[in-house]
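lol ok so funny story. i was supposed to be doing the assay writeup but got distracted and ended up predicting the structure for this chain instead. priorities right. anyway since i did it might as well share w the group, maybe its usefull for someone
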Amino acid sequence: MSTFTGIAHIAIVVHDMDASVDWYRRALGFEPDGGVRPGPVEVGHPRQIMHHPDSGLVLAVHEPLRRSGDMFDPSRTGLDHFSLAVSDRAALDGWARRLDGLGVPRSPVRDAGYAEFVSVADPDGIAWELWATKPAR
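and the output, tada:
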């Protein structure tokens, strides 16, 4: 059977790599892994690899040499958002306090019935959620 074992990395395209790397470092706790890498020549996507020290998640922040200049739009076909799991409501509240302390705009804690979450957007409008699944009853 064909299967996979997890997520190798998430790659995003941004319009200002420095601003985005700073936001992901401050807001979500990702750390740069070395310097900017050129990537394959034919693609023209220099990238900064970042990792999250607690979860091991790898994020590749790409700033194409030829970019469109538009912002992320979750209403277009394609990606809607990324959702990062947190352990419980207490952890979610901790993230909300962290984001508030950094002045990062966020949604209120929302209740989906089976989970609670907070939404944030990076400098390009890429949507992220911090997601706490409720215990089964």
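The chain has a mean pLDDT of 88. The longest strand covers residues 115-121.
back to the writeup now i swear
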